[in-house]
Amino acid sequence: MLNYDTEATAYDATRGGVPRAEAAAAAVLGLVPSTARTLLDIGCGTGLVTERMALARPGLGVFGTDASYGMARMARQRIGAVALADARRLPLPDAVVDAVGAIWLLHLLRGEGDVRAVVSEAARVLRPGGVFVTTVDKDAAHDVGSDIDEAFAPCLDADPSDSADLVVGYGSEAGLDVVGEARFWGHGQGMTPLGAAQAVREGYYASRLHLPGAAAEQLAAVLTALPEPDRPRPDPRYRLLALRRGDRD
Q: pLDDT tens, 83-141?
């Protein structure tokens, strides 16, 4: 797993920067009712997406939380209202926000019960009628039919923590019902074989690939040998789900 404190300064540049953030923010806001007045972005990272949501809808009070000090520090410089907090135990009372976002978060949570706890917390802090908007099946979005995908295929984790079925099930337990979905492009995230090889060696795909022992170096060698190793393959297309809390407790 990456050290997000040390990754914070380089994170945006390696994740599609502003174009990807704007695409994500627009997709999230498309699922948030126009009547919403507050949105909590959990696992907000550097705050780049959070900031874009705030800029795109001035009447919406947007604030964030992140468990990484380095990420939260950067996000605070962008939007101000950011707390250092574990998404499984949010420092908020019940039923106080109109929307909760979790973008590129759930796929990272591999501990027993972690995703269920985050979905439950999102439901707890939502007002009746509020919506929880989250990415699902994040790693599957990167399967674009390329030769890199073929190289990855034997190593893929068959049990992603953010599968749509799991998230919908946890949402149902917490009183949340699916009310919409959207997709958006991960601009600038089309992988090159050389970039993928480096990422494998550095452990970037810990949530996606099972690489025990020397498997990481073996996969990196396969990727490096692919044709046109500097050519980016197609960008991923991410999926969002919106789950609504019932009007009554």
A: 999 999 999 999 999 999 999 999 989 899 999 999 999 999 999 999 999 999 998 89
The number of folded domains in the chain is 1
CATH number for the domain harbouring residue 130: 3.40.50.150
Q: Which pTM does this prediction carry?
A: 0.91
Strand blocks (E) in 4-140: 38-42, 61-66, 82-84, 97-102, 126-136
Tokens representing 82? 């950011």
97-102 and 38-42 beta bridge pairing = parallel
Backbone angles phi, psi at 120, to 5 degrees: -60, -40
> DSSP of 59-89, one letter per residue?
TSEEEEEES-HHHHHHHHHHHS-EEE--TTS
The sign one gets for the Cα dihedral 131, 57, 141, 155 is: negative
**Within a domain: residue 25?**
yes
Between CA 223 and CA 191 the distance in angstroms is: 11
Strands 237-245 and 126-136 come out as: antiparallel
What type of residue sits at position 95? A
Helix, coil or strand: residue 130: strand
**Nearest in space to 85 (alpha carbons), one of 51, 55, 48, 44:** 44
Alpha helices by DSSP H, listed for 163-234, are: 164-173, 193-202, 215-224
Alpha carbon 113 to its chain's center: 18
Going 73 to 98 to 110 to 232, the CA torsion angle's sign is: negative
Establish if 56 belongs to a structural domain: yes
